[in-house]
Amino acid sequence: MSELSHVDESGDVRMVDVGGKPLSRRRAVARAEVRMSPATAQRLRELPKGDALATAQLAGIMAAKRTSELIPLCHPLPLTHVSVELEVADDAVEIVAAAETTAQTGVEMEALTAASVAALTVYDMAKAIDKGMVVAEVRLVEKTKDPV
């Protein structure tokens, strides 16, 4: 059990103590995609600014800021930057979310949460016209840690 950072030797869940760790500049990038019909992707591409993609972008940023409220054992972090970029491909919306902080623990969960919530928002906004959409490939693609 001790190999899992949020499980102690007796098998109980715990919040990791990062109090003794030095501050580091940390960055994480996550990706997600929403697969859909080409017709749905075309409709999303044709929407004006302030549309479903802008809404999903804001939802992802807001979600990153609230990660510790959503995932019980995550530390609340002072995020210094969050970006969420969405691109409509032929049959999907591709999402790249990045989160940055100077802290004692990483921002992977914030980046993954941002990508996930942005994908769920796209799904929510297009579900009326495409019942076959799939949220897929949510994954961490980069994680860095540099001394302060």
Helices, by number, come to 4
Strand order of the largest sheet: 2-3-1-4
CATH architecture: 2-Layer Sandwich
- The average pLDDT is 93
Given the C-alpha coordinates, what overall shape results? elongated
Biggest sheet architecture: 4 strands, antiparallel
The parts where pLDDT drops under 50 for at least 5 residues are: none
Instruction: Report the portion of residues in β strands.
Output: 25-35%
CATH class category: Alpha Beta
- Helix % is 25-40%
- CATH superfamily placement: Molybdopterin cofactor biosynthesis C (MoaC) domain
Pattern of helices and strands: EHHHEEHE
State the end-to-end distance.
Answer: 32 Å
Structural class: alpha+beta
CATH topology: Alpha-Beta Plaits
How many β-strands, per DSSP?
A: 4
The radius of gyration over CA amounts to: 17 Å
State the domain count: 1
Highlighted features:
alpha+beta, Alpha-Beta Plaits, 148 residues, 31% helix
Describe this structure in words.
31% of the residues lie in helices and 32% in strands. Helix 2 packs antiparallel against helix 4 (108-126). It has a single domain (24-147), classed as Alpha-Beta Plaits (2-Layer Sandwich), CATH 3.30.70.640. Strands 2-3-1-4 form a four-stranded antiparallel sheet. Strand 2 and strand 3 form a beta hairpin. It is α+β, with helices and mostly antiparallel strands.
